[in-house]
């Protein structure tokens, strides 16, 4: 299980690094937009992301 967790963490880091590597200016603009969101909007985005990730894991397994 720990090996799978490590693989998942590494894949997350690779995916998170793609946008700042390919387009740093656009990445900065996205970060500025995220900073302007309210706590409620951020929580909703986080919840949506978690639910989508859980659903995709369920479908893949």
What does this entry show, briefly?
Pfam families: DUF2065. The chain is mainly alpha-helical and 61 residues long.
List the SSEs and their pairings.
Elements: H1 2-22, H2 24-35, H3 39-60
Helix pairs in contact: 1-2
Considering the chains and any ligands shown, give keywords for the structure.
61 residues; 3 helices; single chain; mainly alpha
What does this structure look like?
The chain crosses the membrane at residues 6-22, 42-60. The chain is mostly helical. The protein has a domain at 23-61. The protein has helices at 2-22, 24-35, 39-60. The mean pLDDT is 94.
**Could you tell me the mean pLDDT?**
94
The largest β sheet comes out as: none
Uncertain residue segments = none
Q: End-to-end distance, in Å?
A: 15 Å
- Compute the gyration radius: what is it? 15 Å
What is the total tally of β strands? 0
Structural class based on helices, strands and sheet pairing: mainly alpha
Percent helix among the residues? Answer: over 70%
- Give the oligomer, counting copies of the same chain as homo and different chains as hetero: single chain
What does the overall shape look like?
flat
Keywords: Membrane, Transmembrane, Transmembrane helix
Transmembrane segments: 6-22, 42-60
Protein name: DUF2065 domain-containing protein
Organism: Azotobacter bryophylli
């Amino acid at each position: 299980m720990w090996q799978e967790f490590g693989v998942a963490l590494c894949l997350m880091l690779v995916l998170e690094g793609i946008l700042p590597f390919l387009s740093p200016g656009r990445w900065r603009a996205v970060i500025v937009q995220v900073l302007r969101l309210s706590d409620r909007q951020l929580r909703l985005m986080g919840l949506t992301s978690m639910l989508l990730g859980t659903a995709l894991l369920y479908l893949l397994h």
